[in-house]
Amino acid sequence: MTRAQVIRRVVKPVVWVVGLGIPVRLLWGALHGTLGSEPVRAIQEWTGKGALVGLLLTLAVTPLRRLTGWNELIRLRRLLGTFAFFLATLHLLTYLVFDQSLSLAMIRKDIMEHPWVTAGFAAWVLMVPLALTSTAGMVRRLGGKRWQRLHLLVYLAAAGGVFHFLWLVKKDATTPERFGLVLVALLLMRLPAWAVRARA
Amino acid sequence: MLIRRGGDIPASQITPESVYLNRRAFVAAAGGVALGALLPPRLRALAGPDDLKPTPYETITTYNNYYEFGTSKESPAKLAGRLKTSPWTVEVAGAAKRTGRYSYEDLVRPFTMQVRIYRHRCVEGWSMVVPWMGFSLGDLIRRLEPTSKAKFVQFTTLDDPAQMPGQRSDILPWPYVEGLRLDEAMHPLTILATGLYGKPLPNQNGAPLRLVVPWKYGFKGGKAIVRITFMETQPMTTWNMAVPSEYGFYANVNPEVDHPRWSQARERPVGEFFKRDTLMFNGYADQVASLYTGMNLRTNY
Q1: Hey, how many other C-beta atoms are within 10 angstroms of the C-beta on B160?
Q2: How close is the nearest chain A Cα to the Cα of B142, in Å?
Q3: Quick check: ipTM above 0.90?
Q4: Over the stretch A1-10, which tens digit does the pLDDT of each residue have?
């Protein structure tokens, strides 16, 4: 198999199975009572961490491409980003339904008053234009350069997700700190390329 | 064993011992609660009050905050088994006449164990209903004869990294200490728990002796108590030392005073899907609000 074939026939199907498998498993678990003592917490943790992992993988595509020379990896980027948005949307929906019982007044108050909610909600909002422009047609219509520039928002979204996680934990911040470290590392890997482009 | 009703809880809402000892029937009842919780709040209200139905034994004993055994909810149930709770001694110190070291048996012997079905609200936003077994802390304090200097009571819990692996991390200053004003400690709702669901207290729930103050956030309930100290000044408390801006000495359940980072207006009963409104003083306002007359509950959080 060529690299392109590996990506199309192996890696992409794996992304689909994992991305759809998480919500299917959670739904099955919720209906069968296998999600532990706090099913909503399990759903929110899996969709939340899943979305963050998806965002970080999206951001890892280009550095990985540079390191390995596998240019075909770029074909994974939009798929990974779309699944990150999909899981983030499920995460938000469980918050709106189970935490806030769809009360607009409570939701507004929570977003305005609590930075961890503000950060999480902002991260999702930032991902909306990215998801809407994720089709091949939209890439063409926007043109590569403008599309690229718009999609730099993904860094802000990922940072919003990390702060959302960091600000919600009571004391043990180990896991959100790890996510933050990966994000910072991915950002640092991009700096040289950006510096070159800025000088040009 | 004397089964006494916990304050204003109507007898009709107390689960008879025969029901909660019969796990099969209990699991069926819990299933009913879970289904009810899936309904939208408006319909759920029609299904009748499901308040004060005890949380399943399995949940109470596998979902614990007990950082001495790790910071995850699941780790205390896995790691606390090795804690040796017998023999156990409790030291009574400070401003009291009957200070000294008491064996657990001597300390507990004078009291008739009571069942108290209490709401339990964690500062993190989840809640349970726990059928504790224990005795009134006030009764114990009266026997220990505090002097007129005693204004506060401090509870010191076990510091033993060999048995408590979580204490090898400095996530909190050890040992875990908690405290109450003397009148809070003497309040009839305040108990020292020695069991739950009619069984000895499991280690992960604070065996052999833990504090239960139902109108305060759960972290006030120190577990595995080894020392009770009567003090003239307000004692240090662990979470207040760790994050003073977020956790105060009082830690009364109050839906109107948010945690600096999250809302305290609502809570999720563990195992249910939807949140419900948190009650002032966790539903015990009738009995305890007078302790705080004239006090600013926003600054004394």
Answers
A1: 15
A2: 37
A3: no
A4: 888 999 999 9
Cβ–Cβ < 8 Å for A40, B269: no
Question: Domain for residue B298, yes or no?
Answer: no
Residue B144 domain-assigned?
Answer: yes
Residues lower than pLDDT 50 in chain B: 5-49
Domains in chain B, number: 1
In contact, B224 and B208? CB cutoff 8 Å: yes
Point out the residue among B62, B243, B263 whose CB comes nearest to the CB of A114.
B263
Q: Taking CB atoms and an 8 Å limit, are B274 and A98 in contact across chains?
A: yes
- Provide the CATH number for the domain around residue B96: 3.90.420.10
**Sequence ranges of the domains in chain A:** 3-199
By Cβ distance, the residue of A99, A116, A117 closest to B275 is A99
- Asked, for residue B38, whether it belongs to a domain, the answer is yes
pLDDT for B2: 57
Domain that holds residue B121: 11-292
Chain A residues in contact with B278 by the CB 8 A cut-off are none
Q: Which of A101, A115, A172 sits opposite B71 (nearest CB)?
A: A172
Whether B260 is covered by a domain: the verdict is yes
pLDDT tens across B18-28, in order?
444 443 333 33
Q: Would you state the pLDDT for residue A193?
A: 81
Touching B: A residues 37-76, CB under 8 Å: 37-40
Tokens of B15: 């689960």
Q: What is the dihedral of CA A87, A35, B29, B60, to 10 degrees?
A: -120
Task: Please report the DSSP string for B100-143 in residue order.
Answer: EEEEHHHHHTTS--EEEEEEEE-TTSEEEEEEEEEEEHHHHHHH
Binned at pLDDT 50, 70 and 90, residue A112 comes out as very high
Average pLDDT of the residues in A68-90: 95
